[in-house]
Amino acid sequence: SQTIHQWPATLVQPVGSPLSLECTVEGTSNPNLYWYRQAAGRGLQLLFYSIGIDQISSEVPQNLSASRPQDRQFILSSKKLLLSDSGFYLCAWSVGPRGNTIYFGEGSWLTVV
Amino acid sequence: GQQLNQSPQSMFIQEGEDVSMNCTSSSIFNTWLWYKQDPGEGPVLLIALYKAGELTSNGRLTAQFGITRKDSFLNISASIPSDVGIYFCAGAQDYKLSFGAGTTVTVRA
Questions:
Q1: Is A97 on the interface with B (CB under 8 A)?
Q2: Do B92 and A49 touch (CB under 8 A)?
Q3: Is the dihedral angle over the CA atoms B64, B80, A92, B5 positive or is it negative?
Q4: Chain B contacts of A42, Cβ < 8 Å?
Q5: Which end of chain B has fewer CB within 10 Å, C or N?
Q6: Which are the contacts of A97, defined by CB distance < 8 A and separation ≥ 6?
């Protein structure tokens, strides 16, 4: 069965410092991969999605970037964090004919101080 | 993605009661999904709907994909304390999801 892991689970970073959140999916190949952010309170905002290596689309202009160095690995980065980057970041995946069915990881809490 | 209109925003229910929430959109979706999120965790998929008019159950949960493809509802029957949490609807199109703002369910013992 497929599993998704993301880390670190919790991160406290000073303003201006870099960020790297990592996500890997096991048990499948060529998944669609996603990064979402959830601000305190609720809604999920799509940040990036990737349908293959070197195919990454950005949904919202911002201080973040994403990379997919391997088929099942997705990385969210920033060179210089802003206070407004604080939030709950979720990696997700989908695959196959039911590519619209998206499964989420455990999430990473980022607090920028 | 666009925001879906999910209602109610919150509800307090008595244990054993049935719960109903729904989502509407101005756009058509190919897939409707319902998730539950507990504090500090990622959303967990409850039910996925792939066809207009489809009615699907998962234990005490039942969800329907509206015939217009612009709406969906979720019912929880005979609620129990572990049903507390935030429920999100999501419409999927071209491998991307648009989310509702969530319905917070609190169960009174």
A1: no
A2: no
A3: positive
A4: 86, 101-102
A5: C
A6: none
